[in-house]
User: Fold these one by one.
Assistant:
Number 1:
Amino acid sequence: MVSKKKIVLHFPPRLVDQPIVYKLVKDFDLQFNILKASITPEEEGLMVLELSGKKENYDSGVQYLESCGIKIQPLSRDVVRNEEKCTHCGACVPVCPTGALFVEEGSRKIIFKNDKCIACELCVKVCPPRAMEVHF
Amino acid sequence: MKTIKEINEKIKKGEAVVVTAEEVIDLVAKKGTKKASEEVDVVTTGTFGPMCSSGAYFNIGHSKPRIKIGAGTCKLNEVPCYTGFAAVDIYLGATAIPDDDPRNKIYPGEFKYGGSHVIHDLVSGKNVHLEASAYGTDCYPRKKLSTSINLKDMNEAVLFNIRNCYQNYNVAVNLSDKPIYTYMGMLKPNLGNANYCSAGQLSPLLKDPYYKTIGVGTKIFLGGGIGYVAWQGTQHNPTVKRKENGIPQAPAGTLAVIGDLKQMKQEWLIGCSMLGYGVTLIVGIGIPIPVLSEEILKYTAAKDEDIYAQVVDYSEAYPQVVPGSICEVNYAQLKSGKITVKGKDVPTGSLSSYSKAREIAEQLKSWIEKGDFDLTEAVAALPGAESGYSFKPLKESPSISQE
């Protein structure tokens, strides 16, 4: 039985310089694909991984991550923009950690690249007309 | 030199040359101000941003039996209205919120629904729920009223915003080590972001910096319909420092505007929520500037890089009214996506929609080109840069009881 899931890892600052993902490969024989990563020394790190391997390896790998103090969140939520509500102001742009929301040159419209979104939901509440919606 | 009368003659014949406040910049670069001022009759501007001092008054019509809501209470979709008028006149402010909204008790408050949302719902043609109470009089015996109401059934529904269209605005940053929630949006700690709120080179009062054409009575695009400048807005402050091009370097002039809400459009009046701050209304305004002289045209051709704003700390300086600013940046820098403050690169965010401001300027342009919108002569000037009119702080003093 093979497990394959997309998960979001929140690293506390003390773990940012640890070779966590290497351990997942070496000790638990898991395959990974890093979808997003935003890790800076002395700050919280954030990584979105697609993790796959034998179910028992997957489960013990996730257990290992949690024992290190990493918060794991399934990437099951999706942030969607309600195009009717968006006014293209740009209040969301500086709060988006991955650059999934940005100003298009020329048109000055706000572009939302869903494939860069890690569903951190920071944009949801700072959007003045509340155009960013979380879909489960 | 042209007159508004001559321009209106051309509009009537469908011959007026109209350009937007963006297009005029390129035109001047190509042809120079003299030639451009001969060719162009009207420059259209636009802005679309949150403007808190907005609201609408309504006359809801008399019920049978009659009720005197005046000095009673009235709520539209739970949002309280001001009732200190005659029997059935009410005023709904954009920032009003239901009594049971948790406000900032759970910080930062979400402020999901308020007066601005009611205005948007009404303009969208939705029914809203009206709940009123009164003390009852001999001529107005009724004490309770609970009904669904629609904009089209009201006698008057008038958008009357006492301060809109700020001529320039601060750039907000946070120097503290905690996130703060302001009317300028969420500001991340330690200069995490810088938020601004002006359409810059498209913004009406930045293109007529000395109010040479915009005055009391000027006909404008308001909320997708037609409105008028009613007066200078509250906190009008024309005497602030200006650059050599005449453009204020800090928040300066403002406008009070008025127009029939029934002919406005839902996409240009949007209810919005500022996290941890409150509810406000995003208003679309466009103002035509008649090119009466080369000088007026020169002002309309100001570019983003010619327009400067002050970077202000909203964690300490703004709330404590500490004068001055951290530094000054121009709108071209703001629109590049980052500015430098205290040696640090700071990403910028805008609360005012530039693309929508452009749409407003274009829509107003097409109305004028088609002959659907003519220009008005101002009936009185706004207090100007040399007027001495200025924005004063409150002087607090103990109240003396009058016996």
Number 2:
Amino acid sequence: MNTLRFNLNGRWVEEPNVAPTTTLLRYLRDVRGLTGTKEGCAEGDCGACSVAVVENGPDGRPHYRAINACLVLLPMVQGKHVVTVEALKSGEYHPAQQAMAAALGSQCGYCTPGIVMSLFEATYREDLKAPWQLDDQLCGNLCRCTGYRPIRDAATAVAGSCPKDSFSAALPESKPGSMAFHHEENGQLFATPTSFDELWSVLDEHPDARFVVGGTDLSLEITKRFQVPPKLVSLEGLHELHTLKEGPTHLLGSAVTISELEDFTATRLPPVHRMVRYFASRQIKHRGTIGGNLCTASPIGDLAPVLVSLGATAVLRSRQGERRVLLEDFFTGYRKTALQLRELLVGVEVPALAPATRASAYKVSKRRELDISAVSAGLLVEVNSQNVVTLARLAFGGMAATTKRATNAEQALVGHPWSEATVDAAAKAITKDFTPMSDHRGSAPYRALVAANLLRGFFDETSVTPQPRLAPGHAATVLTAEEVRRG
Amino acid sequence: MAEPTSPLRQPLLHESGLKHTTGEARYVDDWPTPPGLLVAQVVVSPLAHAKLKGVDTRAALQVKGVVAVLTAKDVPGTNDVGPVIHDEELFAHDTVRFLGQSIAVVVGESYEACRAGVAAVKIDLEPLPTVLTIDQAIEQKSFLSTNHRLTRGDSKAALAKAPVRFQGEVITGGQDHFYLETQCTLAIPEEGPALRLLSSTQHPSEVQTIVAHVLGWGRHQLVVEVPRMGGGFGGKETQAAPYAAMAALAAVKTGRPVKVWLNRDQDMMWTGKRHPFKTRFDVGFSTDGQLLALEAELFADAGFSTDLSRAILDRALFHMDNGYFIPDVTVTGHLAKTNLPSNTAFRGFGGPQGMAVIEDIMSRAAERLGLEPSELRRKNFYGAAPRNVTPFWQEVKDCRLERLFSELLASSEYTRRKAEVESFNASHRHAKRGIAITPVKFGISFTTSFLNQAGAFVVVYADGSVQLNHGGTEMGQGLHTKMLAVCAHELGVPADRIRVMTTATDKVPNTSATAASSGSDLNGMAVQHAAVTLRERLRPIAAKLLGAPADSAKDVVFENGRVFLPSQPTKTVAFEKVTQDAYLSQISLSATGYYRTPDIHFDKATGRGKPFHYFAYGAAVSEVEVSGLTGEHRLRRVDLLSDVGASLVPSIDKGQVEGAFIQGWGWLTCEEVRFDEKGFLRTHSPDTYKIPAFGDAPVDFRVALLEHAPQDGTIHGSKAVGEPPLMLALSTVAALRHAVSAFGKKGREVVLPMPCTPETVLFAIEAAKAL
């Protein structure tokens, strides 16, 4: 039994009596009276609850990361430093606060503390260079009043300014400590093992425990359905699962966060990077993980289509050993995977992309940022020197109960010249591959038409460069040739 | 530059801006928990329409932590919360009329206990047939009110003669307010019996009235306070009251403080939204694009009860002309009664829905006639008599649209950019761009004329510091900042010597809602009145302290915390010296102010009158790029020019204009309210309901206020700003239509329902290609 212990606004706090399924937001407001952090939606879609937590970056150094306090359960900040909006003004207003007030970036002010915390992270980011990163930094914070222009002005003023102040000075001493945690009481379990041995023994005792890492999906059961999962085992403390290894086959650990994946794939796997750009929000990306996104096995999960198109393999492990499953076979049904009891996803292996391989990824949703796709696609085509298609992997999300390859369309491509006529025939064949459903994200006819059109757009884009990147200010998920050239 | 003589017209920061950024700014749910606080959860109907045969609360009362379960039977006064028409029960007693209607409230020590209590309440329901769409309501003649009508001339005859005549249908969708702070009221028992209510409402006086009605109390037993709101947008005008009434009732029943707070999903599922409209029109034009005649029939989805729907429908009819003179016109409106939450006020209050129709008609006419849309719009603006009379017979004086158009067409480089758009479209197959300019003319005043009144109460302490109370509420729009500027200007004291107080019904009574863009117009005049009264009382004291003769008192200048005579500007006395002396001289240092808008009236029976004190104007140019593969679009550049008269605080007004535009764009594009066939709201959280996000706002966003444009008969020549700019977003739909049309042949009419989601746009493109 360990006690919950973390650093809140510069002071260590211990909480032996707070239930481990308490969200950080409820804790801050109800236990600590820190009401600057707001509940706007309790699902990570509005950002009013944003706080900062210190995490190690890919450079091995600690950094402030904005996260949604509404989706974080207290043991997830075990051993970590948490900063809330109340701590920012120490005598003087923090630059993020000054910039927001000076720009009239607040009107009703309810979203403002969350926005200030996103700007707080941005203030100390050394990697914030491209304009799209500013959008990415703030797309997890909704504001209903301002129309965002003044917030953009405030963000531009402070982003990447890296002032030498008490917060930058505190960083080196704020490295996250051990996450080890074990709490068992009245049939409730929350365990964060730090070794596989520990994990296996917890699982031996609690074979019915559920895995959690970032909690960005699972916590919704608590915050939206008001159901408390009785037994949770966090995999966040298992060092090996955080591995990112470059090679002829890249290894992406299952506990790697989406923001770490974003950095890793920028040069190595452009299609993944492109998909990750519109994956949720910065706050969610800091907590959401590869494993979480794949293991929920949602048909509208963002990573599955692109990873399937790249020919990824899932690496599974249990006490009995390891096995490998082609990722497309990992999804066995609606929200079902090939994982067996007491087995976990260690990571995915993704073959490095040959420079000439045409590959891209698309996500079509009602809103560009922080939305769930109506249709998503990971498309990969290899063409030989005679311009004949030798390999096609066309994986779609939102079109069936699982992420699924469009085999009819693939057959219409392979062995044929890579031409507009072939692509058009393949696009038409997609109607044979899927019987999509109609819901509030899109009607069946819309989904079918978009899926076909994405293939047409893919042909256009890859005629300029085989692995096109998103261009600044692009109008849609599919780029025009001009935009590809610009990007 | 000389030191400004008052904060008026200065680029002030938001009065609470810094407090917002630190988390110090307090909203109702942030209030320190009073001892003994109880919380609540509402038991609601799981069906859209049913007979309520019984409610059994016995098991719920046995749940640990549950303190009380209250139903219709527990209401000591009247079980009604309807603000105008009394057709809305606080708790359903024999019939439930929408999925989410309140049946009971469970009050307990914690939310967990309350939720367990809710689960234990047994409700016996017998399903009844439902009406869930405007079409079903028309078919089943399910109406709350019909035949609201405005008419002038002979539209039938004029249509018959029109060289170009066409008919069509225009659909606009609902919109959730999505204020970031959801509905919340904290009720605290006081000696009396009496209650103090902290409520997130735009209309504290109505909360007071309705709570008194429900409790069977006098209004003097209640004080309603509004510290600030985390956004309102109309959604907290009437719809805060039911949940405030539950908190009040529970506090009286238990004798303990009670908080009723809705979480996001509850707020979205249970409270009303912007009214969806369906309009059928028949319009006549000359071949050169002169609007000749219009007949239109509007159907608004009011939901299960009347709420403010009659006035909203009226305002839609009042804005069917937008800025265009229609020689012969008849517009009729009906309120569909459906088994859905009761739709309510939302920024624009029906105006946007009416305006969307005429702007759609103008776009369609330009498409059919092959005319430049900006020219077609321009040639139909109101002008000199006889082209200056609205369908409700009010004369349009000082129409500023021609000036706005010519300035904005030039500053936005519309002509050059339009040519660029055409050349882009000629060279791109899968992407097309569109550009359009649209006008806004919006009537200012509550159309229920008696509501146009306001009060203020200004208190000066002997040390020269000031407390300012006024009847308006602060929901982010910057009203307090403006009122502070008005007060500081009249008293000649620095802004930091004035504290704007929490809006409270015991300071300024019998107020109107902070709504209809009227906050600054009405309260500004009242604040000015109170401040001037105090200043005039101080003049003789000031003159005496300056050693000037008594008859020079009228010349004393109050500025920057000092008083002086213009003849001797270096000889000054501090304001606090004047107030100290006034106190010692036994002069009253508090004063009320009051204002009512003069000379407005409207006769509903004849559809004639002068409902508006004046019109606010604006114009917008939007440029979009649309993907022909997915239907997604991006705003490439937006130029707005708004007529806010002589702005009281330009920095605040600019924020209102920008924010309203983006909110309007959301309504017209990405925000889609979807109910399923059971009347269940599928889009009940930001997971499925998408308001504009950071990256949606155009990076090239140029916003300007019309210069040198003071308005007669308003506070310091300013004009209302809250709602009018929302309708500038109609330019984005006109621009989308331009882009969609570029996928097809010229001279064809585009059919594009709103909201223009990627799906709607893609199918419009497919239709354009097929023609």
